Amino acid sequence: MPGAIHFPDDLPKLAALLRAGEVVAFPTETVYGLGGDAGNSDAVLKIYETKGRPRFNPLIVHCADLAMAETLVEFSPLARMLARFWPGPLTLVLPRRVDARLSDIVTAGLDTVGIRIPDHPLAQQLIRAAGVPLAGPSANPSGRLSPTTASQVDRGFHGEVPVLDGGPSRAGVESTILAVTGDTVTQLRAGALPRDEIEAAIGRRVAVAAEGGAIVAPGMLSSHYAPNAALRLDAERPETGELYLAFGEPPRTATGEVLNLSPSADLREAARNLFSMLHRLDEMSDSIAVAPIPHTGLGEAINDRLRRAAAPRP
Ligand code: TXA
Ligand code: MG
Fold first, then answer.
1. Contact 186, 92 (CB under 8 A)
2. Which of 26, 63, 86, 108 could bridge across to 69 with cysteines, CB 3.0–4.6 Å?
3. From residue 211, how far is each of 164, 180, 208 by CA, in Å?
């Protein structure tokens, strides 16, 4: 049953497809994921093929609950403390259990696994119904904008992938990725869970991985999440021919189309709108100017995605 957007009634059928080694796009609170059985290498290869991802990078493995996660990775006391954010927009990179039922392609041969329990009822129901953890990168062709609605997924893959429609993603940017090694917590990717909230909860600092450091994640490539249009960042106002993506009060001189990430300058609302609005502006124009966004809290992830979207393309 290719190509269609599916509603919860079809969940058992989609779960059966996953068990049979097919890929299915599913909703999460961050962005839509392109899911496949994490224990089945053919299914994982289909994920790469569908995305057109040029090289194998480790994928996040989505679990329905902590019990499922515990079959795959080892939890230190510090990792357990961080797992309190689950279900939620946090991915923990933890040591792989020797007996984990995981394809080596999922981990790209690493001895660690990126694990996450998504906070979306349909994601959890789908994983439970499939009965297997789901490998799941964002459900977009490689390098393009991440999808926050079922119809964006459908357009991105030209109707060739079944999509479970769970409505618009609540958070709108990908999960925060943390590596936990011994007593050290390192943020590999800024995301929907702000670093300051994590630090407050665990009572210690979270280091930030150096760009181009030892652990490289594709989300850390300098050009990623890219629209077709050229992006100009930190723009106080649009220039002639540019569409404007505002944040807070838009400039009075703004002409042409203006979309506003958050008229009340709320970072949560801005994160939720970010990819959808970039998708819309991208369809309307070749040049987009984006207002300055504060770097605090969720602003770290928003500015990270904007920087990559604006970077020169390879
Ligand atoms: O919010 C999200 O995280 C979304 C939704 C669908 O869950 N998923 C997502 O997956 O953004 P993806 O594949 O686009 O990004 C996964 C990132 C990659 O940058 C990958 O390199 C990193 O996680 N990653 C996964 N496992 C890793 C590991 N063992 N060590 C280091 N990085 C890892
Ligand atoms: Mg992605």
1. no
2. 63
3. 34, 18, 9
Rounded Cα distance between 306 and 215, Å, is: 21
**Ligand 1 neighbourhood includes 181 CB (under 6 angstroms):** no
Q: For position 268, what pLDDT does the model report?
A: 93
Give pTM, 2 decimals.
Answer: 0.88
At residue 255, what are phi and psi to the nearest 5 degrees? -115, 170
Tokens for 206?
Answer: 């979270």
- Is the peptide bond between 314 and the residue preceding it cis, with omega within 30 degrees of 0? no
**Strand ranges for the chain from DSSP E:** 5-6, 24-26, 33-37, 60-62, 90-95, 112-116, 134-135, 163-164, 176-181, 184-189, 207-208, 230-232, 243-246, 258-260, 287-290
Identify the segments of the chain with pLDDT beneath 50: 2, 216, 218
| Beta carbon of 219 within 6 Å of any ligand 1 atom | yes
